[in-house]
Design a protein that fits this description.
- The chain is α+β, with helices and mostly antiparallel strands and 238 residues long.
- The protein contains 10 helices and 6 strands, in the order αβαβααααββααβαβα.
- The chain has a 6-stranded antiparallel sheet with strand order 2-3-1-4-6-5.
Length: 238
C-alpha cells in the first residue's frame, strides 16, 4: 500500500525543479521506513557507515538509491532525530555540544537539545534515499540544497497561493536531520536551515548554500508555482 493517495509524477516534478531553478544536484526523496516490508524490491542497504547528511549528498550528487538501518548511521544525533535510536547520555545532558565550545553554558546546550525536533525513538526502522526523479518509493519529505537565490524562489512558490510569511526554525546544529527532515515531517510545513558545521564539513554543502525540507504533500503545489514565480515580471533573473 502506498503512503499517499494523491498521484505525483516525481520525475516530472524533479526535472521541472532542476531545469527551472538551475539546481546543481537533484532534489532528494527521503523516507522514514517503519518496517522492513516497506523497502521496495531491488533497493539495497547502504554498504558503508556514514551520516544522514552524507547520505542525502550521495542521492543528490551521485544519483544513488539505498536505505540505511540504524547500524549504518554514524552520527548519533542524526540517528536520534530521525527516530532510529534513543538519545545518547552526552547529548541528552548537553555535554557533547558544550565540549565542542558552541555554547557559553551547559544550560544553553541543554535548552537547545531539548528543543530539537525529533521522531519518537525506535519508530523508524531505516531511512531511505533517492534522487527525486528516480525514486521508487513515496518520500516522507523532499530535501533541496541550493544557494540563497534559489531558496528565495522556493519561498515565493510556497507563498504563491495563500501569501503570508514563512517562519524558518533552526539552531545551527543538526540542520539536515532535525531541521529539514524531522521537523518538516512532524509539523507538515516547509523549513529552511542555514546548514550546520557537521553537514557542511561532511556532506559538501557549499558556503553559499542552504537546506530546505518540503513535506511530500506540498510538493505538487510548490512545483506548480515555481515556473510562475520565476517567470513573473518582477522576478530577478540570473
Amino acid at each position: 500500500m502506498d503512503d499517499i493517495r494523491t498521484t505525483i509524477d516525481y520525475e516530472k516534478v524533479s526535472e521541472s525543479l532542476k531545469e527551472t531553478l538551475g539546481l546543481s544536484g537533484s532534489p532528494v526523496a527521503v523516507k522514514f521506513v517503519r518496517t522492513e516490508e516497506e523497502i521496495p524490491e531491488g533497493v539495497a542497504a547502504l554498504d558503508e557507515t556514514t551520516r544522514h547528511c552524507q547520505m542525502v549528498s550521495m542521492a543528490r550528487k551521485e544519483g544513488k538509491i539505498f536505505y540505511a538501518p540504524v547500524d549504518k548511521h554514524s552520527c548519533s544525533g542524526g540517528a536520534w532525530a530521525l527516530g532510529l535510536k534513543g538519545l545518547t547520555p552526552s547529548l541528552k545532558s548537553g555535554e557533547f555540544y558544550f565540549k565542542l565550545g558552541k555554547f557559553d553554558t551547559w544550560a544553553a546546550c541543554k535548552r537547545t537539545i531539548d528543543s530539537i525536533p525529533h521522531l519518537e525513538s525506535g519508530t523508524t526502522y531505516a531511512t531511505m534515499y533517492a534522487p527525486l526523479e528516480k525514486t521508487p518509493f513515496t518520500p516522507t519529505v523532499v530535501l533541496i540544497v541550493a544557494e540563497a537565490r534559489i531558496m528565495l524562489k522556493l519561498a515565493q512558490a510556497v507563498l504563491y497561493k495563500l501569501g503570508g510569511r514563512i517562519e524558518a526554525n533552526f539552531s545551527g546544529i543538526q540542520s539536515v536531520c532535525a531541521d529539514t527532515a524531522a521537523q518538516t515531517y512532524l509539523n507538515g510545513k516547509v523549513n529552511f536551515s542555514l546548514g550546520c558545521d557537521g553537514s557542511r564539513k561532511f556532506s559538501g554543502i557549499e558556503d553559499g548554500e542552504m537546506v530546505m525540507g518540503i513535506p511530500v504533500e506540498l510538493l505538487p503545489e510548490i512545483a506548480e508555482a515555481i515556473p510562475v514565480v520565476t517567470g513573473a515580471p518582477g522576478s530577478v533573473k540570473k
